[in-house]
Amino acid sequence: MTSTPVRPASPPVQGAAPPHRTDPDPGGADPAPAAASTGMARARGALRRTPGQLRLVLVLCVLATLVVGLLGFQAGRVQSSALEAASADSAQLVGVQEVRNALVAADATATGSFLVGGLEPTEQRARYDDLVDTAAAGLAELSGSNAADSELLGQVASDLTVYTGLVERARANNRQGFPVGAAYLDQASTILREQMLPALDEVVVDDADRVAADFSGVRNALWVLAGALVALAVLVVCQMWLARRTHRVLNVGLAVATGLILVVGVAGTIMLSSASSRAHDVRDGPYAATLAASQAYSLGNDAKSMEAFTLIKRGSGQSYEDAFVEATADAAERLDTAQSDGVLDDTTATALDDWVAQHAEIRALDDGGDWDAAVELATSTGEDSPNAAFAAFSDAARADIEAGAAQTRDDLASAGTTSAVAGWLLLAAGLVAALLAWRGVTARLEEYR
Questions:
Q1: What pLDDT, on the 0 to 100 scale, is given for residue 316?
Q2: Cα dihedral sign, 325-328-331-337
Q3: How confident is the model at residue 34 (pLDDT cuts 50, 70, 90)?
Q4: Domain segments of the chain: what residues?
């Protein structure tokens, strides 16, 4: 058996390159930066030429006008929303005050009727029932209109059922001449003043805080004017550049866009500023007047209850008289402040003073030992009686409350409409100006194609 000889492999030549070696990137450089550098160079090159510069002008003009439109629309939307919230929250606040006033007035009517003894006057009984029904309906409506107030208002509604039950017991015993009737009436009044009214006062404070926050959200719109001025500067500079480069004095599209931004920007700013100013006027005017009259009315009815309790207690009611003095002094101070601020006239304050002066006659009779005469004067219904004076005060306060609430609602609604219209007007102007600027610059750009 023979074998075929095999020649041994030759050793590699010293210094020779290995076979089949490949090196696609001998320098080891990353191509990405090079590509980016090339793109930037191309962009710089394009901007050195007129078509590239025209495209840049086109982008600047369109963006400037769109920003004005969007800023104006956002300002109008925010302002309109704040005014709408202020209107709703102020209505809620006034409504809660109305419920409080109805409850205090009902309590004053019940205690006043108790002084008559026996079967109470039909007119006063009807007034009490109407006030209780008004309070109950108001609690149900207000609980559903604002979830933040529903828990406390529901608690008051539950306490109202207990209160009216105690008043009915007091009436039943009073008709039969049982002294325990005064205890039931005192217990009912305690529930009203220690549970129901504090809960309503807490709701009033919460609502007042929300209203204050709403009014704070209605800010001046001068920053919209600032944005419009910046856009105008961009448009004017671009037109000046176009005039030098194209040797045309006027670019119609840019000129009309500039005029549109100028006119609508100024008009929109004036409208937004006017709405903001009107909102602050409402806050310091009819809204403040409504709160002052409502609080004075509530304090007056509270004092009316104290007047009756002072007589019911027969010689041991000094604490109720002290409460009467404190409540009427607080009411007078609120009305005087509103009058000095120019938001209320002196009608309600004068009526309150007249009633307080006649109350002094009741106290003079009682303190002089003539309790029967004091009760007779306190329960009389003649034209010159204390009850007639109190009715005049109540009517004047109610008129102030209704007028202030209506004006607050109408003025805020009008201001909100103005803000919304200004926002849409600025948005439309921005869009139209952007289209005009695009057409104006595009016409010059087409000349280079």
A1: 75
A2: negative
A3: low
A4: 53-446
Q: Which of 143, 83, 142, 97 is nearest to 409 (CA)?
A: 83
Nearest CA to 138 out of 109, 98, 78, 184 is that of: 98
Task: Read off the tokens for 114.
Answer: 């108790």
Q: What is the DSSP letter of 13?
A: P
Residue whose tokens read 């010689």: 315
pLDDT averaged over every residue in the chain: 84
Query: 247: which DSSP letter?
Result: -
Which of the residue ranges 62-71, 168-177, 202-211, 257-266 would you say has the lowest mean pLDDT? 168-177
Place of tokens 């090159």: 45
Residue 31's pLDDT is 55
Gap between the Cα atoms of 29 and 55, Å rounded: 35
Convert the pLDDT of each residue in 261-287 to its tens digit: 999 988 998 999 899 999 999 999 999
263-286 burial string, b = 16+ CB within 10 Å, else e?
ebbeebbebbbebbebbeebbebb
* DSSP, residue by residue, 341-370: TTSS-SHHHHHHHHHHHHHHHHHHHHHTT-
Instruction: Give the separation between CA 417 and CA 243, rounded to whole angstroms.
Output: 42
DSSP characters for 360-427? HHHHHHHHTT-HHHHHHHHH--STTSHHHHHHHHHHHHHHHHHHHHHHHHHHHHHHHHHHHHHHHHHH
Q: Which of these ranges, 283-287, 339-343, 441-445, has the smallest mean pLDDT?
A: 441-445
